[in-house]
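SUBJECT: protein chain
CONTENTS: sequence, structure tokens:
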Amino acid sequence: MLALSRKKNESIIVNNNIEITILDIRGDQVKIGIAAPKEVPIYRKEVYLQIQAENEAATNVEGMAALADLLK
């Protein structure tokens, strides 16, 4: 993991096309802004993990059996 120090209104660039800017710092919260191409999905980690869990559940054996029944 790369750890960087940034101050308010400072940015980092990722992969030449994603800019992450520190917008505000209040106590233990940091507000960030992310400028990225529309085709780059951006999620909070807890949302991303929930999406992954739901996708995994949808591809389980029971889910595939239900899909097969629908296609009959």
